[in-house]
Amino acid sequence: MTLTGDLVHLRALEPEDADAFWRWHHDPEAMRWMTTSYPESLAQLRKRFVDLPPNSYERCSFAITTTAESRLIGCVVLRDATPEVGRATLDIYLGEKDTWNKGYATEALRLLCRWAFNDMRLTAIELTVVADNDPARHLYRKLGFVEEGRRRESFRRDGQLHDAIIMSLLAREFID
Ligand SMILES: CC(C)(COP(=O)(O)OP(=O)(O)OC[C@H]1O[C@@H](n2cnc3c(N)ncnc32)[C@H](O)[C@@H]1OP(=O)(O)O)[C@@H](O)C(=O)NCCC(=O)NCCS
């Protein structure tokens, strides 16, 4: 199953995608507002991509590729879905910085939310965004996400603490 739009295509991750992810993980600008963990070697990351579990209701990861050139540019994940409520958590990033501000993430999120609400039958999608990440907050608001709360000083980068904003989108609020 793939999701196709005019600008981007969402497909399952492949082992061959590992090297691009490793490069993105070492780009301080792309990772600036992302939660990062301890260093992972290219060999470890490649192995992880070979052993990826199948996508499922609980966790579904998509590679974002350009429709025109099938170029891998980023990743979007829906995780921790709860069947009782139908709510899942979203993460997105575009590792290829030359593709920023061209509408790719807007379309990727529209494709994903449409599928999640119509086919997965989710009722809500939530996410956490660092308060200083203005482009991401603008993007989420544009799709209808609203702020639910603030985790004060819960994100640390380069020794500085930043607030994180919790946002959610109810199915009926989605601006498609
Ligand atoms: C955030 C991110 C996913 C956006 O992807 P993108 O493809 O550039 O997004 P789009 O082009 O679809 O939309 C970006 C919007 O932000 C706006 N924007 C850009 N810089 C901005 C700023 N400093 N302040 C406010 N809005 C800004 C753009 O104008 C555009 O809005 P518009 O369509 O109304 O004009 C991408 O920049 C990214 O991956 N960043 C690094 C990782 C990250 O921060 N991920 C999110 C973690 S919560």
Automatic annotation (TrEMBL):
The organism's taxonomic lineage, starting at the top: Bacteria, Bacillati, Actinomycetota, Actinomycetes, Pseudonocardiales
Transmembrane segments: none
Native species: Actinokineospora diospyrosa
SUPFAM superfamilies to which the protein is assigned, alphabetical: Acyl-CoA N-acyltransferases (Nat) (SSF55729)
Gene3D superfamilies referenced in this protein's UniProt entry, alphabetically: 3.40.630.30
Protein name according to UniProt: Protein N-acetyltransferase, RimJ/RimL family
Top-level lineage group: Bacteria
InterPro entries assigned: Acyl_CoA_acyltransferase, GNAT_dom
Domain N-acetyltransferase: 8-172
